[in-house]
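Can anyone check this?
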Amino acid sequence: MRKRFLLFSLPFFVLVFSLFYFVLPDILHPLRRDSIPVGTYIVPWMKPNPSIEELNLHPQLPGEPPPFEIDIVMADALKLDITFRIEIPGETRVVPSSVYLGHDSDYLYIGGKFVGIGTNPASNPHVEIVPDYFEILFDVANDGVLTSPESGSRLSVFITPQGTWMWGYHDMVWAYSSSGGRMCFYLAENYYFPEAQRVFSLANLAVAYDNSTKTLIILFSRFLRQPDNHEVNALQIRRGERWVMGFLLQLGYATHISAFGDYVDGWPQKAYPYLSNDSSWWPKLCIDLTNSPPEFK
């Protein structure tokens, strides 16, 4: 009798276990699948070719031309042609640019080519080199209102007059700045954690600089999800989800004045220094993980 009970009850327990393990999480935390408004930029499935790891096997030496062509590496990406106009003391620096966006199941790939950006006018070659930087910022909930923490990336490149360089990456969060007395996009490590405890959204990057044309080339990947980093990164796209988000691009030069004194321009328009949490005018992009092509499974 006991054996018969166990024999018939076993499938029942398996069914109950499967229900709790596979179905209940989707009920408690349903997958986000946004509708796609007209005019949304669709970020395509793609991977850089060669990969970022392969590009890093051939570092650029001083005086050499850039070791890779971003147009070729990101040939299958969404390409946005933009002209940034950055107001600096005494002039406006016009920077024809191309920004590239693509994704696979785990990473968002972001590339950029900034022709004529040159060295930061705030740099003092005898004291300190101050970085040029590129930012991509997200309205993760796509509700037109920035709320903490949101998400973003800043790639800073320190360029010397001789054309050598080094880089720094920062996660960005929407948070209150006590020094500025307002909400703004803030460097995550300054707001949340000491440097040693940071959890980067950055996966990998490659940077190059052509000193003859003052052209900066960047390519980096950031994780689409990091459960252990949710407090500083609201961009947590699970497989099977489709997210539509507002986004803003910014190109500029850091300064010593304050976080609100940088020389910077934005696309589709300048928003610095973030005097408003209104992101309703930001363009939309879509990252769709609901139907991955066979080569990405």
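Reply from J.R.: I decoded it. The first strand starts at residue 41 and ends at 42.
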